[in-house]
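Subject: sequence -> C-alpha coordinates, single chain

Hey, anyone have a minute? Need the predicted structure for the following. Not urgent.
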Amino acid sequence: MARLQTLPAFCFLTVLWIAVGRASGLTNEGSGFRVNVLVTNQPARAGMGSGWGEPMSLALTENGSFLFIERGGAVKWWDSSTHTTSIAAFIPVCSIGEEGLNGLALDPGFATNGWVYLHRSLPKTLNRNGHRIGHTRVSRFSFHYGRLDTEHETTVIEMETQRDQIFHLAGALEFDDDGNLFVATGDNTMPFLCDGYSPLDERPGRQAFDAQRTAANSASLLGKILRLKPLPGGGYSIPPGNLFPPGTPKTCPEIFVMGVRNPYRMAWDRVGKRLYWGEPGPDAVLPSRQHGPAGMDEINQATGPGNFGWPYFCGSNLAYPHFNFSGTNSRPPEVATAPENLSPNNTGIQSLPPAQPAFLSYGHVPSKDFPMLNGPGGPTALAGPIYRYDPQLQSPYKLPKSLDHHLFIFDWNRNWIITAPLDADERLKLGPDGKPILKTRPRLADSRYARLAPATVRRPARKRIH
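Reply:
Had a minute. Here:
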Protein backbone atom coordinates (compact mmCIF):
# COMPACT_ATOMS: atom_id res chain seq x y z
CA MET A 1 0.00 0.00 0.00
CA ALA A 2 3.04 2.22 0.14
CA ARG A 3 3.52 2.70 -3.60
CA LEU A 4 0.38 4.36 -4.89
CA GLN A 5 1.77 7.71 -5.93
CA THR A 6 4.59 7.34 -8.44
CA LEU A 7 4.74 4.36 -10.78
CA PRO A 8 5.79 5.91 -14.11
CA ALA A 9 6.85 2.61 -15.72
CA PHE A 10 3.74 0.81 -14.55
CA CYS A 11 1.64 2.58 -17.21
CA PHE A 12 -1.15 3.22 -14.74
CA LEU A 13 -1.74 4.77 -11.35
CA THR A 14 -4.05 2.72 -9.20
CA VAL A 15 -4.53 1.14 -5.79
CA LEU A 16 -3.56 -2.34 -4.59
CA TRP A 17 -5.25 -3.55 -1.43
CA ILE A 18 -4.97 -6.48 0.93
CA ALA A 19 -8.60 -7.38 1.62
CA VAL A 20 -9.39 -9.81 4.40
CA GLY A 21 -13.05 -10.15 5.31
CA ARG A 22 -15.80 -12.51 6.27
CA ALA A 23 -18.31 -11.97 3.48
CA SER A 24 -18.35 -14.02 0.32
CA GLY A 25 -17.71 -11.59 -2.48
CA LEU A 26 -16.69 -8.15 -3.70
CA THR A 27 -19.20 -5.35 -4.08
CA ASN A 28 -18.70 -2.05 -5.82
CA GLU A 29 -22.24 -1.00 -6.65
CA GLY A 30 -22.50 2.77 -6.88
CA SER A 31 -18.78 3.31 -6.30
CA GLY A 32 -17.76 3.84 -9.91
CA PHE A 33 -15.03 1.21 -9.60
CA ARG A 34 -14.33 -2.33 -10.59
CA VAL A 35 -12.37 -4.52 -8.17
CA ASN A 36 -10.07 -6.53 -10.42
CA VAL A 37 -8.90 -9.60 -8.53
CA LEU A 38 -5.25 -10.40 -9.25
CA VAL A 39 -4.62 -13.28 -6.86
CA THR A 40 -6.76 -15.25 -4.44
CA ASN A 41 -6.09 -17.50 -1.49
CA GLN A 42 -6.29 -20.95 -3.07
CA PRO A 43 -4.38 -24.15 -2.21
CA ALA A 44 -0.82 -23.92 -3.47
CA ARG A 45 1.10 -26.29 -5.73
CA ALA A 46 3.21 -28.97 -4.08
CA GLY A 47 6.42 -27.53 -2.65
CA MET A 48 5.16 -23.95 -2.75
CA GLY A 49 3.56 -23.69 0.70
CA SER A 50 -0.13 -23.77 1.55
CA GLY A 51 -1.81 -20.58 0.39
CA TRP A 52 -1.16 -17.43 2.35
CA GLY A 53 -1.16 -16.76 6.05
CA GLU A 54 -2.09 -13.33 7.36
CA PRO A 55 -0.87 -11.02 4.57
CA MET A 56 0.47 -7.83 6.13
CA SER A 57 1.83 -5.42 3.53
CA LEU A 58 2.77 -5.07 -0.12
CA ALA A 59 5.12 -2.90 -2.15
CA LEU A 60 4.80 -2.22 -5.87
CA THR A 61 7.74 -2.11 -8.26
CA GLU A 62 7.90 0.12 -11.30
CA ASN A 63 6.87 -2.63 -13.74
CA GLY A 64 3.72 -3.52 -11.81
CA SER A 65 5.03 -6.59 -10.02
CA PHE A 66 4.88 -6.53 -6.24
CA LEU A 67 6.34 -8.07 -3.11
CA PHE A 68 4.12 -8.92 -0.18
CA ILE A 69 4.74 -10.34 3.27
CA GLU A 70 2.92 -12.65 5.63
CA ARG A 71 3.09 -12.42 9.41
CA GLY A 72 4.52 -15.93 9.72
CA GLY A 73 7.67 -14.94 7.82
CA ALA A 74 6.98 -15.55 4.13
CA VAL A 75 8.06 -12.98 1.54
CA LYS A 76 6.25 -13.51 -1.77
CA TRP A 77 6.56 -12.12 -5.27
CA TRP A 78 3.75 -11.53 -7.76
CA ASP A 79 5.13 -11.24 -11.32
CA SER A 80 3.13 -8.89 -13.54
CA SER A 81 4.45 -10.51 -16.72
CA THR A 82 3.19 -13.99 -15.85
CA HIS A 83 0.50 -13.21 -13.23
CA THR A 84 2.02 -15.90 -11.01
CA THR A 85 3.17 -15.84 -7.40
CA SER A 86 6.30 -17.41 -5.93
CA ILE A 87 8.06 -17.51 -2.57
CA ALA A 88 10.98 -15.08 -2.53
CA ALA A 89 12.14 -16.04 0.97
CA PHE A 90 11.02 -17.39 4.29
CA ILE A 91 12.44 -15.59 7.33
CA PRO A 92 12.14 -17.11 10.83
CA VAL A 93 10.18 -14.87 13.20
CA CYS A 94 8.45 -14.96 16.55
CA SER A 95 4.76 -15.12 15.60
CA ILE A 96 3.17 -15.25 19.06
CA GLY A 97 0.32 -12.79 19.56
CA GLU A 98 0.87 -9.84 17.24
CA GLU A 99 4.57 -10.52 16.68
CA GLY A 100 5.84 -11.54 13.26
CA LEU A 101 6.92 -10.11 9.92
CA ASN A 102 4.96 -6.85 10.06
CA GLY A 103 6.63 -4.27 7.82
CA LEU A 104 7.90 -3.95 4.23
CA ALA A 105 9.31 -1.10 2.14
CA LEU A 106 11.34 -0.80 -1.05
CA ASP A 107 14.38 1.45 -1.12
CA PRO A 108 13.81 4.62 -3.20
CA GLY A 109 16.54 3.28 -5.50
CA PHE A 110 15.05 -0.22 -5.70
CA ALA A 111 14.98 -0.22 -9.51
CA THR A 112 18.80 -0.18 -9.55
CA ASN A 113 19.91 -1.54 -6.16
CA GLY A 114 17.18 -4.10 -5.39
CA TRP A 115 17.13 -3.19 -1.69
CA VAL A 116 14.18 -4.32 0.43
CA TYR A 117 13.53 -3.34 4.07
CA LEU A 118 11.70 -5.67 6.45
CA HIS A 119 10.47 -5.09 10.01
CA ARG A 120 10.16 -8.32 11.99
CA SER A 121 10.12 -9.88 15.46
CA LEU A 122 13.23 -11.97 16.10
CA PRO A 123 12.53 -15.59 17.12
CA LYS A 124 14.62 -15.69 20.30
CA THR A 125 12.93 -14.89 23.61
CA LEU A 126 15.13 -14.09 26.63
CA ASN A 127 14.36 -14.36 30.31
CA ARG A 128 15.33 -11.35 32.42
CA ASN A 129 14.42 -11.28 36.11
CA GLY A 130 11.41 -13.49 35.46
CA HIS A 131 10.16 -11.50 32.45
CA ARG A 132 10.16 -12.53 28.79
CA ILE A 133 12.08 -10.14 26.55
CA GLY A 134 12.18 -10.05 22.74
CA HIS A 135 13.49 -7.82 19.97
CA THR A 136 12.16 -6.37 16.74
CA ARG A 137 14.53 -5.49 13.92
CA VAL A 138 14.47 -3.44 10.74
CA SER A 139 16.90 -4.87 8.20
CA ARG A 140 17.85 -4.43 4.56
CA PHE A 141 18.07 -7.32 2.09
CA SER A 142 18.81 -7.56 -1.63
CA PHE A 143 16.20 -8.82 -4.08
CA HIS A 144 17.08 -10.16 -7.54
CA TYR A 145 15.30 -12.39 -10.05
CA GLY A 146 12.42 -13.21 -7.73
CA ARG A 147 14.57 -14.17 -4.75
CA LEU A 148 15.44 -12.33 -1.54
CA ASP A 149 19.03 -12.88 -0.37
CA THR A 150 18.56 -13.70 3.31
CA GLU A 151 22.19 -14.77 3.81
CA HIS A 152 23.34 -11.14 3.65
CA GLU A 153 21.35 -9.04 6.10
CA THR A 154 22.15 -5.42 6.95
CA THR A 155 20.64 -4.30 10.26
CA VAL A 156 19.29 -0.76 10.44
CA ILE A 157 17.81 -0.69 13.96
CA GLU A 158 16.86 -3.19 16.68
CA MET A 159 14.44 -2.54 19.55
CA GLU A 160 13.62 -4.39 22.76
CA THR A 161 10.04 -5.44 23.55
CA GLN A 162 8.37 -7.22 26.46
CA ARG A 163 6.81 -10.59 25.68
CA ASP A 164 4.94 -11.19 28.92
CA GLN A 165 1.87 -9.69 27.20
CA ILE A 166 2.33 -9.50 23.42
CA PHE A 167 0.16 -6.77 21.93
CA HIS A 168 0.52 -3.76 19.62
CA LEU A 169 3.66 -4.19 17.53
CA ALA A 170 2.55 -1.98 14.57
CA GLY A 171 5.48 -2.45 12.17
CA ALA A 172 4.78 -0.30 9.10
CA LEU A 173 7.70 1.09 7.08
CA GLU A 174 7.56 4.05 4.69
CA PHE A 175 10.11 6.26 2.92
CA ASP A 176 9.77 9.98 2.36
CA ASP A 177 11.15 11.66 -0.75
CA ASP A 178 14.42 12.57 1.03
CA GLY A 179 15.27 8.91 1.67
CA ASN A 180 14.30 8.99 5.35
CA LEU A 181 12.65 5.85 6.66
CA PHE A 182 9.60 6.03 8.93
CA VAL A 183 9.35 3.07 11.33
CA ALA A 184 6.06 2.50 13.19
CA THR A 185 6.14 0.80 16.60
CA GLY A 186 3.19 -0.08 18.84
CA ASP A 187 2.85 0.63 22.54
CA ASN A 188 3.57 -3.05 23.39
CA THR A 189 0.96 -2.88 26.17
CA MET A 190 -1.78 -5.28 27.29
CA PRO A 191 -5.10 -3.52 26.45
CA PHE A 192 -7.73 -5.87 27.85
CA LEU A 193 -7.64 -5.56 31.66
CA CYS A 194 -8.71 -1.91 31.79
CA ASP A 195 -12.28 -2.54 30.60
CA GLY A 196 -11.40 -1.40 27.08
CA TYR A 197 -10.25 2.08 28.09
CA SER A 198 -6.73 3.45 28.54
CA PRO A 199 -4.12 1.15 30.17
CA LEU A 200 -2.67 3.34 32.93
CA ASP A 201 -1.94 0.65 35.51
CA GLU A 202 0.92 1.96 37.70
CA ARG A 203 0.90 -0.85 40.27
CA PRO A 204 4.23 -2.62 40.92
CA GLY A 205 4.87 -5.51 38.56
CA ARG A 206 2.28 -4.26 36.08
CA GLN A 207 4.62 -2.54 33.64
CA ALA A 208 3.15 -4.42 30.67
CA PHE A 209 -0.26 -2.89 31.52
CA ASP A 210 0.93 0.75 31.53
CA ALA A 211 1.22 2.50 28.15
CA GLN A 212 2.86 5.46 29.87
CA ARG A 213 5.94 3.20 29.95
CA THR A 214 6.16 3.34 26.14
CA ALA A 215 3.89 5.63 24.11
CA ALA A 216 4.18 8.57 26.53
CA ASN A 217 7.83 7.86 27.37
CA SER A 218 10.30 10.06 25.48
CA ALA A 219 13.12 7.62 26.29
CA SER A 220 11.36 4.62 24.69
CA LEU A 221 11.24 3.78 20.99
CA LEU A 222 7.87 2.02 21.41
CA GLY A 223 4.50 3.63 20.76
CA LYS A 224 6.22 5.89 18.24
CA ILE A 225 6.86 6.63 14.60
CA LEU A 226 10.61 6.89 14.16
CA ARG A 227 12.36 8.77 11.35
CA LEU A 228 15.81 7.52 10.37
CA LYS A 229 18.27 7.82 7.49
CA PRO A 230 19.52 4.27 6.70
CA LEU A 231 23.24 4.11 5.97
CA PRO A 232 24.69 1.94 3.16
CA GLY A 233 26.84 -0.06 5.56
CA GLY A 234 24.12 -0.55 8.17
CA GLY A 235 22.77 1.51 11.03
CA TYR A 236 21.34 4.97 10.54
CA SER A 237 21.85 8.68 11.06
CA ILE A 238 19.34 11.12 12.56
CA PRO A 239 17.88 13.55 10.01
CA PRO A 240 17.14 17.08 11.18
CA GLY A 241 13.55 17.88 12.16
CA ASN A 242 12.63 15.09 14.58
CA LEU A 243 10.73 15.72 17.82
CA PHE A 244 13.76 15.84 20.15
CA PRO A 245 17.12 17.24 19.01
CA PRO A 246 20.08 14.86 19.54
CA GLY A 247 21.55 15.27 23.00
CA THR A 248 18.29 16.24 24.71
CA PRO A 249 18.36 14.48 28.11
CA LYS A 250 15.95 11.55 28.62
CA THR A 251 14.81 11.49 25.00
CA CYS A 252 15.43 9.43 21.86
CA PRO A 253 16.42 11.50 18.81
CA GLU A 254 14.89 8.86 16.51
CA ILE A 255 11.35 9.88 17.53
CA PHE A 256 9.31 11.78 14.95
CA VAL A 257 5.87 11.09 16.45
CA MET A 258 5.12 9.93 20.01
CA GLY A 259 1.87 9.12 21.79
CA VAL A 260 0.57 6.46 19.39
CA ARG A 261 -1.11 3.17 20.24
CA ASN A 262 -0.74 0.89 17.23
CA PRO A 263 0.08 2.79 14.01
CA TYR A 264 -0.47 -0.25 11.87
CA ARG A 265 -0.19 1.19 8.33
CA MET A 266 0.96 4.59 7.08
CA ALA A 267 1.57 6.54 3.87
CA TRP A 268 3.74 9.53 2.95
CA ASP A 269 2.33 12.20 0.62
CA ARG A 270 5.22 13.46 -1.49
CA VAL A 271 3.33 16.53 -2.71
CA GLY A 272 1.79 17.71 0.56
CA LYS A 273 4.84 16.55 2.61
CA ARG A 274 2.67 14.91 5.25
CA LEU A 275 2.54 11.51 6.90
CA TYR A 276 -0.80 9.69 7.30
CA TRP A 277 -1.58 6.64 9.39
CA GLY A 278 -4.46 4.70 10.88
CA GLU A 279 -4.69 4.20 14.63
CA PRO A 280 -6.87 1.32 15.90
CA GLY A 281 -8.31 2.46 19.21
CA PRO A 282 -9.46 0.92 22.50
CA ASP A 283 -12.40 -1.48 22.68
CA ALA A 284 -14.75 0.41 25.01
CA VAL A 285 -18.06 0.91 23.21
CA LEU A 286 -19.47 3.59 25.54
CA PRO A 287 -17.93 6.31 27.74
CA SER A 288 -17.51 5.69 31.46
CA ARG A 289 -17.60 8.09 34.39
CA GLN A 290 -14.72 6.18 35.99
CA HIS A 291 -12.60 5.38 32.95
CA GLY A 292 -13.32 8.18 30.48
CA PRO A 293 -14.24 8.31 26.79
CA ALA A 294 -15.28 5.40 24.61
CA GLY A 295 -12.68 3.96 22.28
CA MET A 296 -12.09 5.92 19.07
CA ASP A 297 -10.24 4.80 15.96
CA GLU A 298 -8.25 7.56 14.33
CA ILE A 299 -6.94 8.65 10.96
CA ASN A 300 -3.97 10.92 11.66
CA GLN A 301 -1.93 13.42 9.70
CA ALA A 302 1.50 14.68 10.78
CA THR A 303 2.63 17.95 9.25
CA GLY A 304 5.81 17.66 11.31
CA PRO A 305 7.03 16.09 14.55
CA GLY A 306 4.58 15.91 17.43
CA ASN A 307 2.81 14.13 20.26
CA PHE A 308 -0.52 12.50 19.39
CA GLY A 309 -1.61 12.02 22.98
CA TRP A 310 -1.95 8.31 23.68
CA PRO A 311 -2.54 7.00 26.36
CA TYR A 312 -3.90 10.23 27.87
CA PHE A 313 -6.21 11.23 25.00
CA CYS A 314 -8.09 9.76 22.06
CA GLY A 315 -10.05 11.18 19.13
CA SER A 316 -10.43 14.94 19.38
CA ASN A 317 -8.24 15.00 22.53
CA LEU A 318 -10.91 13.40 24.71
CA ALA A 319 -9.11 12.91 28.03
CA TYR A 320 -8.81 9.76 30.16
CA PRO A 321 -8.71 10.16 33.96
CA HIS A 322 -5.84 8.44 35.76
CA PHE A 323 -7.92 5.55 37.02
CA ASN A 324 -6.31 4.09 40.15
CA PHE A 325 -6.28 0.31 39.80
CA SER A 326 -5.44 -0.01 43.51
CA GLY A 327 -8.93 1.17 44.42
CA THR A 328 -8.10 4.62 45.84
CA ASN A 329 -9.05 7.94 44.30
CA SER A 330 -8.12 8.52 40.66
CA ARG A 331 -6.10 11.53 39.50
CA PRO A 332 -7.67 14.10 37.17
CA PRO A 333 -6.99 13.73 33.44
CA GLU A 334 -4.08 15.44 31.74
CA VAL A 335 -4.42 18.81 30.00
CA ALA A 336 -3.88 18.50 26.24
CA THR A 337 -1.76 21.65 26.00
CA ALA A 338 0.66 20.51 28.73
CA PRO A 339 0.44 16.76 29.49
CA GLU A 340 2.74 15.24 32.10
CA ASN A 341 3.94 11.66 32.49
CA LEU A 342 4.23 10.99 36.23
CA SER A 343 4.14 7.21 35.94
CA PRO A 344 6.78 5.27 37.96
CA ASN A 345 7.38 3.36 34.71
CA ASN A 346 8.42 6.49 32.84
CA THR A 347 12.16 6.84 32.16
CA GLY A 348 11.85 9.97 30.00
CA ILE A 349 10.90 13.58 30.52
CA GLN A 350 7.81 14.40 32.60
CA SER A 351 6.56 17.48 30.73
CA LEU A 352 5.49 16.31 27.26
CA PRO A 353 4.80 18.20 24.03
CA PRO A 354 1.18 19.31 23.53
CA ALA A 355 -1.19 16.56 22.38
CA GLN A 356 -2.51 16.84 18.83
CA PRO A 357 -6.11 15.77 18.06
CA ALA A 358 -6.93 13.15 15.46
CA PHE A 359 -7.37 14.18 11.82
CA LEU A 360 -10.57 12.09 11.72
CA SER A 361 -11.98 9.71 14.34
CA TYR A 362 -14.91 7.35 14.74
CA GLY A 363 -16.06 4.83 17.33
CA HIS A 364 -17.88 1.56 17.87
CA VAL A 365 -21.38 3.05 18.07
CA PRO A 366 -22.96 3.61 14.63
CA SER A 367 -22.47 7.17 13.45
CA LYS A 368 -25.50 9.23 12.40
CA ASP A 369 -23.33 11.90 10.80
CA PHE A 370 -21.17 9.45 8.81
CA PRO A 371 -23.14 6.24 8.21
CA MET A 372 -20.61 5.14 5.59
CA LEU A 373 -18.14 4.54 8.45
CA ASN A 374 -20.44 2.01 10.09
CA GLY A 375 -20.28 -1.72 9.64
CA PRO A 376 -20.44 -5.02 11.46
CA GLY A 377 -17.88 -5.51 14.20
CA GLY A 378 -15.54 -3.08 15.84
CA PRO A 379 -13.52 -0.58 13.78
CA THR A 380 -9.90 -1.01 12.66
CA ALA A 381 -8.90 2.25 10.99
CA LEU A 382 -6.09 2.26 8.43
CA ALA A 383 -4.87 5.11 6.26
CA GLY A 384 -3.87 4.86 2.65
CA PRO A 385 -2.27 7.33 0.30
CA ILE A 386 -3.26 10.58 -1.33
CA TYR A 387 -4.18 10.21 -5.01
CA ARG A 388 -2.57 12.76 -7.35
CA TYR A 389 -4.01 12.84 -10.85
CA ASP A 390 -1.43 12.95 -13.66
CA PRO A 391 -2.88 14.30 -16.94
CA GLN A 392 0.25 13.15 -18.82
CA LEU A 393 -0.12 9.52 -17.81
CA GLN A 394 -1.54 7.42 -20.63
CA SER A 395 -3.36 4.48 -19.08
CA PRO A 396 -6.86 3.05 -19.02
CA TYR A 397 -6.30 2.10 -15.38
CA LYS A 398 -5.56 5.46 -13.84
CA LEU A 399 -8.16 6.85 -11.47
CA PRO A 400 -10.31 9.78 -12.66
CA LYS A 401 -9.47 13.44 -12.23
CA SER A 402 -12.43 13.77 -9.84
CA LEU A 403 -10.35 11.85 -7.27
CA ASP A 404 -7.36 14.18 -7.50
CA HIS A 405 -6.13 15.23 -4.03
CA HIS A 406 -8.27 12.63 -2.23
CA LEU A 407 -7.16 10.70 0.84
CA PHE A 408 -7.98 6.99 0.74
CA ILE A 409 -8.87 5.54 4.13
CA PHE A 410 -10.06 2.03 4.87
CA ASP A 411 -11.15 -0.25 7.66
CA TRP A 412 -9.65 -3.73 8.00
CA ASN A 413 -12.56 -5.12 10.01
CA ARG A 414 -15.53 -3.37 8.39
CA ASN A 415 -14.24 -3.94 4.85
CA TRP A 416 -14.81 -0.49 3.39
CA ILE A 417 -12.71 1.98 1.42
CA ILE A 418 -13.61 5.67 1.67
CA THR A 419 -12.21 8.70 -0.13
CA ALA A 420 -12.02 12.15 1.44
CA PRO A 421 -11.12 15.26 -0.61
CA LEU A 422 -8.56 17.64 0.89
CA ASP A 423 -8.45 21.42 0.55
CA ALA A 424 -5.51 23.64 -0.40
CA ASP A 425 -4.21 23.46 3.17
CA GLU A 426 -4.32 19.64 3.18
CA ARG A 427 -7.23 19.59 5.61
CA LEU A 428 -10.44 17.62 5.14
CA LYS A 429 -12.68 19.47 2.71
CA LEU A 430 -16.06 20.33 4.25
CA GLY A 431 -19.48 20.12 2.66
CA PRO A 432 -22.33 22.67 2.95
CA ASP A 433 -23.27 21.12 6.31
CA GLY A 434 -19.80 21.86 7.68
CA LYS A 435 -18.88 18.17 7.88
CA PRO A 436 -16.04 16.39 6.02
CA ILE A 437 -17.01 15.03 2.62
CA LEU A 438 -16.69 11.23 2.66
CA LYS A 439 -17.65 8.85 -0.14
CA THR A 440 -17.80 5.07 0.06
CA ARG A 441 -15.81 3.09 -2.49
CA PRO A 442 -15.89 -0.71 -2.95
CA ARG A 443 -16.48 -2.92 0.05
CA LEU A 444 -13.92 -5.71 0.04
CA ALA A 445 -14.25 -9.22 1.34
CA ASP A 446 -12.50 -12.60 1.21
CA SER A 447 -8.74 -13.03 1.25
CA ARG A 448 -7.40 -11.72 -2.03
CA TYR A 449 -5.25 -9.07 -3.65
CA ALA A 450 -7.18 -6.79 -5.96
CA ARG A 451 -6.61 -3.78 -8.17
CA LEU A 452 -9.07 -0.93 -7.79
CA ALA A 453 -9.67 0.64 -11.20
CA PRO A 454 -12.37 2.66 -13.00
CA ALA A 455 -15.45 0.54 -13.68
CA THR A 456 -14.88 0.68 -17.45
CA VAL A 457 -11.57 -1.22 -17.19
CA ARG A 458 -11.72 -4.89 -18.11
CA ARG A 459 -11.05 -7.50 -15.45
CA PRO A 460 -7.83 -9.50 -15.90
CA ALA A 461 -7.79 -13.29 -15.62
CA ARG A 462 -7.55 -14.61 -12.06
CA LYS A 463 -4.48 -16.50 -10.95
CA ARG A 464 -3.84 -18.61 -7.91
CA ILE A 465 -1.67 -17.37 -5.06
CA HIS A 466 1.06 -19.62 -3.71
